[in-house]
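Quick question, first post here. What does this chain look like in 3D?
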Amino acid sequence: MPPSPPPAPSAPAAAGLRVTLVWAGPADLDLYVTGPSWETVYFGNTPSKSGGTLEHDARCAVIPSDANTPQVEAVSFVEPDAGHYRVGVDYLEACREAAGEPVGYRVITEFAGARNEYVGLAHHHQFVPIVLEFDLRAGAPNSPLTLVVTQQPEVTQ
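> Answer (accepted):
Ran it through. Tokens below.
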């Protein structure tokens, strides 16, 4: 069984919405965040028209030889739209020969001081388009938005 994913590194609280993918292992995982306009922010679409930005793309070329060093990709929206969001994870490439084992990961969502974490398992050459879904919604007209997790699938081995 692969080791548990590392804890998320501490980051200064940012305004807006931040979705972070954290893992440790010789793997190139990619984070995909689809917003209410159905536009997806990922390594091939950043910044997006909806205002999402991929802050860092961790590729095999930049992953250190120490496979236990946490890797991080994050997508942020300074002024996120209300509505439905989906988070996907792709295990695109194993970074070394003999790699390709499943990799544990952690997805963290942060918005308005609230933080949620989801732990999953990525399999080589497998793209899971929905590992987590959430809404940004107001409880009443003109009230601030809150983040509500709407789907958090069970981890499959």
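The longest strand covers residues 83-94.
The CA atoms of residues 133 and 151 lie 5 Å apart.
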